[in-house]
């Protein structure tokens, strides 16, 4: 925890009211320790406080990304033209080819990218459970706030032929979970242990006793992928959880794609939450993102995630924008088809902004601590430059519109997590990678050195995968997932 105070002076502060409307106000923000202690005009800085001039700056709450696989940095760029069945063997399964130090650097790169683009809190669906200590050490080093969701994951026993090990709950998995729970939270309290789980093929009694065990360990957030369809299956996980007596506000569904009306009802009744990830959902045939679906009406329980920074930018602003404009296109098309135009635009920039801020905080039960700028909350603060070429005039007219529709990470000048500066003067701060026990090197490391480590390790990973038959691995994945092969088709009626 920082010992000094900071005063952010003279900026435009984006504050939320009780109805989630955003009000930009001219004010100073005083940070004492890791907490916002005052938001008002003309604050006299306490003795010794660092005063940061925020004239012509917009101060936003840090973004809350509720679904992300932070380890995947070494895989960036390879999925641009992939569907889910391409991504699984070439991306997800290659966790087994990462050394512990690769895991550290991949995780560190992912967390630092998040900070660079304004994500101050992330729900990390850690479906790499080789050496979670390396993953957590990297998360601590980055300075990000995280719910680190440990995940029992099928391991790859062999690549040629591809054989997966489905002993999800082997003794070492559960002892790892218990060890982590005993040590949680990590990193001065910034990193809390959560649980990630996709093993609903296991017997009912096994799942129920597992969830009971997880809760008994004090874990508050349990997250699972829900993509109803050909690849992940047609089972309705929300209804399954309800029938097991396990559906409650601790559950965070990633995607929540193609829900039945009853699933939407269950989401609201149980006050569980969903994380939409527009980039991957739109690309990988998971269905339309659900947050702004007018038929489902589940927006208040929805939030946003970047999902795979191996596939797309970690920027939540990008996801806000993609979600908003896609939802507008879907809404507009029936009007266009009927030869009409809608009377008003569908959804607002403010609604998209809220999905990436206060709604994300609610999704993990932290809305009293993060997700908006308010006295008593953690000082997780973004400082945007209102005079940049992309922001100017938009920022002065409507700061929320400027952030959602005009900004890029290049406009983000400063990022703070709990009052600690992680990006300053548009540059990420150096990080402490420890004493050599995790990273293979020690001490403070600047971003460009992190990047060089990543480049070297990516090349090494490329050498490891060069001899693998991903075509065979994909066919094996199809078998493993129980995908009905006849459902994988070139086209359907009406497509070209
Ligand atoms: Zn995911």
Report a brief summary of the structure:
The protein has 496 residues and is an alpha/beta fold. It contains 15 helices and 21 strands. The longest helix is centred in the middle third of the chain and has 22 residues, at 316-337.
Per DSSP E runs of 2 or more residues, the count of β-strands stands at: 21
- Strand fraction equals 15-25%
Name the helicity range: 25-40%
Shape estimate: globular
Low-confidence stretches: none
Looking at the structure, the CATH topology of the largest domain is TIM Barrel
Report the CATH superfamily of the largest domain.
Metal-dependent hydrolases
What is the top-level CATH class of the largest domain?
Alpha Beta
Radius of gyration: 22 Å
Number of domains: 2
Mean pLDDT: 94
Keywords: Hydrolase
Organism: Amorphotheca resinae ATCC 22711
GO molecular function, one term: hydrolase activity, acting on carbon-nitrogen (but not peptide) bonds
Protein name: Amidohydrolase-related domain-containing protein
Q: Can you tag this structure with a few keywords?
A:
single chain; 496 residues; alpha/beta; Urease, subunit C, domain 1; TIM Barrel; 2 domains
